[in-house]
Amino acid sequence: MNAGAVDRSRVAFLLHAGDNALVLGQRLVALVGHAPILEEELGIANVALDLLGHARMWLTYAGEVEGTNRTEDDFAYFRGAGEFRNALLVEQPNGNFADTIVRQFLFDAWHARALGAWSASDDERIAAIAQKAKREVDYHVTRSGDWVVRLGDGTEKSHALAQTALDALWPYTGELFDSGDADRDLAARGIAVPPEALRDAWLGDVGDVLARATLAVPESGWTPSGGKRGVHTEHLGYLLAEMQSLRRSVPGERW
Fold first, then answer.
1. Per-residue H/E/C for 53-88
2. Over 50: is that where the pLDDT of 3 sits?
3. Alpha carbon 214 to chain centroid, angstroms
4. Is the pLDDT of residue 52 over 60?
5. Do 101 and 159 touch, CB atoms closer than 8 A?
6. What is the rounded distance in angstroms from the CA atom of residue 104 to the CA atom of residue 243?
7. 82 closest CA partner among 240, 247, 245, 224
8. Separation between Cα atoms, residue 187 and residue 218, nearest integer Å
9. What are the pLDDT digits (tens) for 163-203?
């Protein structure tokens, strides 16, 4: 890489990590005040705050690597859907409680494995962010996994809702393990692991929980993708319209 050139692979990685946390955190924020029990009301809020904290760290570093003086607020509030690099899984609607929990668990299981791998990055800043976030995400995956078991191995209705959610969301997990040119470049430099290297461990973690939940692992089939390239479902546009509306209405204002 030429001296002074932007490390576009590293920026792409940081935006993917930051956007995943930001978009899922925003999804969870929308549930505050609507949880089925008080304990879960607090749990959802705490996980959302953790994810927003992770997003700030990743996006702040992305701005520094990019060298354009963009802040985490600029990335969050002044990009269109086509500029976001999050996985399609995290932008899926909240739906019912089973939909929310299954989406959270599938992501948490991947997130914990990814952060564990990134903690050994040759980029000391990435390693430090990953190590800090991993301590919180270990709680996230335990919490969401416990809920999957409670729903799957609960009543006939809760089992059916959980299985339906799993069947609908499973196709979106394939994208988490897709490798592009940026991923291969970073892997060659010891900055990040190839996404596909996480698949077997993730399948083992998820499979163990689904077995306890008496839920069937869906068969592989159609696997939508495109999030890393800025190709998203319509759901992201609606989410961003709500999230960005106030900030865009008063550009340059500070609170």
1. HHHHHHHHHHHHHHCCCCCHHHHHHCCCHHHCCCCH
2. no
3. 25
4. yes
5. no
6. 20
7. 240
8. 30
9. 999 999 999 999 999 999 999 999 999 999 999 999 999 99
d(CA 189, CA 149): 39
What is the token pair recorded at 46? 């705490």
Spatial CA neighbour of 108 closest among 162, 147, 164, 61:
147
* Mean pLDDT rounded to a whole number for the chain: 94
Q: Which residues contact 157 (CB under 8 A, 6 or more apart)?
A: none
SS3 179: coil
How far is residue 49's CA from residue 59's CA, in Å, rounded to a whole number? 15
H-state helical runs in 153-214: 156-169, 181-188, 199-212
Q: Are 58 and 124 in contact (CB under 8 A)?
A: no
Q: Which amino acid is at 42?
A: L
Apex 211 CA angle, 210 and 215, nearest 5: 55
Q: How many CB atoms lie within 10 A of CB 138?
A: 15
Residues in the chain: 255
Measure the CA–CA gap between 117 and 194, rounded to whole angstroms: 10
Distance CA 175, CA 125 (A): 25
CB neighbour class for 200 (10 Å; exposed up to 12, middle 13-18, buried from 19) = exposed
Alpha carbon distances (Å) from 44 to 73, 139, 190: 23, 12, 34
